[in-house]
Specification:
The protein has 171 residues and is α+β, with helices and mostly antiparallel strands. 40% of the residues lie in helices and 23% in strands. The chain has 4 helices and 6 strands, in the order ααβββαβββα. A 6-stranded antiparallel β-sheet has the order 3-2-1-6-5-4. Helix 2 packs antiparallel against helix 4 (139-167). The longest helix has 29 residues, at 139-167. The protein is globular. 34% of the residues are buried.
Length: 171
């Protein structure tokens, strides 16, 4: 339990320090993997112009992995479209599973996907946890992932708003 509290404290401190969004997203994935002994934590954000989910931060996959896929693809796309958390073992047996070969995803036996939903109800991305173990991901971790997904949705939403405002600033 203290690891969960520590993660929340560190993420909150990063947000309060106004660290760049990309840095906070990466820090979250690192903290989750380190403190909870999770094999992979990744954050995908939605690109509304291309209708894709893009890997923005990850710990456990290839560091500089460039991953982008349609919101119609895979379990992560399903989490995004349905706005529902998915927690399952043997994800490769799910009919929506799509293997992303370039990141070594085939070795993971448990999957947790949580939508990042903003206050208006829009899905801005997905928060994903994967393990090599075929044990279902614990409910405490699911609760933490939901909390972090909400915080990351706020960050990503603010980042988008700042981008729009800077594009429309009188020059």
């Amino acid at each position: 339990m203290s690891d969960i509290v520590d993660i929340l404290k560190q993420v909150t401190n990063s947000i309060l320090k106004h660290e760049p969004t990309a840095k906070i997203l990466q820090k979250v994935t690192e903290l989750v993997c380190e403190k909870l002994r999770i094999d992979v934590c990744s954050i995908y954000t939605f690109d509304s112009k291309k209708n894709t989910l893009n890997l923005r931060a990850n710990t456990g996959f290839v560091k500089k992995a460039k991953v982008s896929f349609s919101v119609e693809e895979g379990l992560t796309g399903l989490v995004f479209r349905e706005q529902n958390t998915i927690n399952l073992t043997k994800p490769m047996n799910h009919p929506q599973f799509t293997l992303v070969n370039s990141i070594g995803e085939e070795k993971f036996q448990s999957y947790l996907g949580v939508p990042m939903i903003d206050s208006s109800g829009s899905t801005l991305g997905c928060f994903i946890i994967q393990n090599r173990s075929d044990d279902m991901i614990d409910e405490k971790v699911v609760d933490l992932a939901n909390t972090l997904a909400s915080q990351m949705a706020i960050l990503v939403s603010q980042e988008g708003l700042q981008r729009v405002l800077s594009d429309h600033t009188i020059k």
